[in-house]
Write a structure and sequence with these properties.
The chain has about 250 residues and is α+β, with helices and mostly antiparallel strands. It folds into two domains: about 90 residues; about 140 residues, no CATH class. It is built from six helices and ten strands, in the order H-H-H-H-E-E-E-E-H-E-H-E-E-E-E-E. The strands form three sheets. It has a four-stranded mixed beta sheet with strand order 1-7-8-10, with no helix packed on it. A hairpin with a 2-residue loop joins strand 7 and strand 8. Helix 2 runs antiparallel to helix 3, helix 2 packs parallel to helix 4 and helix 3 runs antiparallel to helix 4. It is elongated and about 85 Å long. The termini are far apart. The N terminus is likely disordered.
Length: about 250
C-alpha cells in the first residue's frame, strides 16, 4: 500500500515536472523566435526588394517610355522613403504608398489617348423602317463596299460613298463608321472626341434631345470619321460613348 502511494506520488511529480519542462521548452522557443526577428535595416532591405519586384512585374514593354520613367520615379522615391523610415510601421507605410503610386501609372492597355480626326459625310439615306446601331473600322475600299452592300441606301446624285473614298484615300487614312437609328425630332448631335484605350477606339458623342419633341419621326444618324491608318493599326474594337442632353 505504501509502495503504491509512493509510486503514484512519483508519477504526479513526473507529470508536473513534464509540464514544467514543456513550458520551459516553449518559452525558450518563443524567446529564440524573438531573437531571430529582423532588424530595422533588414526590414528596410526586404521592403525595398519587394517594391522593386512589384515594379518590374508591371513589365517595361507594357508602358510608353514616358510612363515607364514616371513609374521608375515612384520606385526611387519609395526606396528613399523606406530608407529613412524610423520604424517598421513607417517602412510598411512607405512601401505601400509607393506601390499605390506605381499601380496607377497608365500602361498601354488602360491609357486613353486622343487622336486627330476629320468628320466625313454619308451623302445618302438609309431606306429601312428600323435598324440597330452599326459600327465598323474600314481600312480599304473593298471593306467599304462590303459594309454597304447589305443595306438599302439611296445615294445622292447616284454617287455611292466609295466613289468619294477611293483606293488612294486608304493608303494613309481609314474610316470609322457609326450609324444609329433614332425616333425623334430636332435632335442635334456632335462628335466630341476620338480616343484610343488599348485596342479599343472610343467615339465620344453628345446628343441634344428636345424635352418635349414634336413631329416625331424615324431617322438614322450617321458618324463617319476619317483617321490616320497608323493611329488604328492595333484597333480591334469600337466603343460608342453617347451622352444625351435634354434641351
Amino acid at each position: 500500500m505504501i509502495n503504491r502511494m509512493i509510486k503514484n506520488d512519483i508519477v504526479r511529480k513526473l507529470t508536473i515536472a513534464g509540464v514544467v519542462i514543456t513550458i520551459m521548452l516553449l518559452t525558450t522557443v518563443w524567446l529564440g523566435g524573438c531573437n531571430n526577428t529582423p532588424t530595422l535595416e533588414q526590414y528596410r532591405a526586404t521592403a525595398v526588394q519587394d517594391l522593386q519586384n512589384y515594379a518590374m512585374a508591371r513589365g517595361q514593354n507594357n508602358f510608353t517610355p514616358e510612363n515607364w520613367a514616371v513609374l521608375q520615379g515612384h520606385v526611387t522615391n519609395g526606396v528613399m522613403a523606406i530608407n529613412v523610415a524610423q520604424d517598421k510601421i513607417a517602412v510598411r507605410a512607405a512601401r505601400d504608398e509607393a506601390k499605390q503610386q506605381i499601380g496607377v501609372v497608365p500602361n498601354k492597355l488602360n491609357m486613353r489617348r486622343r487622336i486627330s480626326f476629320e468628320e466625313g459625310y454619308l451623302s445618302g439615306r438609309f431606306v429601312t423602317s428600323a435598324m440597330p446601331s452599326l459600327s465598323a473600322i474600314i481600312r480599304n475600299q473593298d471593306e467599304l463596299k462590303f459594309f454597304f452592300q447589305h443595306h438599302n441606301i439611296e445615294w445622292h446624285n447616284n454617287t455611292p460613298i466609295w466613289d468619294r473614298y477611293r483606293v488612294e484615300f486608304f493608303e494613309k487614312s481609314a474610316l470609322i463608321l457609326f450609324f444609329r437609328g433614332v425616333t425623334g425630332s430636332n435632335i442635334y448631335r456632335f462628335l466630341d472626341n476620338v480616343s484610343i484605350v488599348g485596342n479599343t477606339l472610343e467615339l465620344h458623342t453628345v446628343w441634344q434631345i428636345p424635352s418635349s419633341p414634336i413631329n416625331m419621326h424615324w431617322l438614322v444618324w450617321s458618324i463617319i470619321v476619317e483617321v490616320d491608318q497608323t493611329d488604328i493599326q492595333d484597333i480591334t474594337n469600337i466603343y460608342i460613348n453617347n451622352k444625351e442632353i435634354k434641351s
